[in-house]
Amino acid sequence: MPVYYEDVEVGDVETHGDYEVTREEILSFAERYDPQWFHTDPDRAAEESPYGGVIASGWHTAAMTMRLLVEGTLAEAATVGAKGVDELRWPEPVRPGDTLRIENEVLEKVPERPERGLIRARTRTYNGDDEAVFSMIGNVMYLRRGDD
Amino acid sequence: MPVYYEDVEVGDVETHGDYEVTREEILSFAERYDPQWFHTDPDRAAEESPYGGVIASGWHTAAMTMRLLVEGTLAEAATVGAKGVDELRWPEPVRPGDTLRIENEVLEKVPERPERGLIRARTRTYNGDDEAVFSMIGNVMYLRRGDD
């Protein structure tokens, strides 16, 4: 059963996981999309980086979060994509060996058009020590049933 | 020569490119991180999607933008990563065959700490038809020379 705009309630909270972060995936994403040394060079990162070792690209963390969202909250959602994201933050680094999970909370519904509405939801990503490593407010377009 | 906080001026504008977007890369990124049908299923997307065909995951567009930033504006920058991003938008979809370039404009400098400062810059990504397909305001931490 698709989840339409009308099926989503402000205050809905869901958690989804887990995503196991490997060193290989951190390096391979960063080499392709974010080849800064603190993402791609474990030796230099161990010696020179304020993080004490290689950390995931922030865009990789966003992408892993999206994977958990798509498998979880959005799995049955009747969406046609997102308009954008606000207040995207990376409060703590993501490291090899971390296990990530997400919490998604619906903040606001905006009817917008007869055929679709906007769902504003805050997604927070946590590591195995319950530290928030990522957060954002997404603006996702949901189709409306049209029967109300 | 590393580019420190002191070397960046409000109003600086740079453009960098190009990035050729292939169908293979759109599908492969989406299968891994954003497996929604309008990113992964060209046949269904051609028939059912409002976009008329498969489009890149918004996180893929962000990642390709980051690649252009890292090769361009950030290539010599003395940064230790970003705190976050505001006002991230995807005004138009990215499609197979698109050629992307970025424009980066420095909006604000915040001294923050003796050893580092924050550079707020707007990055816009354009396709070959000069349509903006992505924009964001990044908050990047630059090291300070410490000689001023």
UniProtKB/TrEMBL annotation, chains A, B:
It comes from the Archaea. InterPro entries: HotDog_dom_sf (IPR029069), MaoC-like_dom (IPR002539), MCH/BMMD (IPR052342). Residues 13-111 form the MaoC-like domain. This is MaoC family dehydratase.
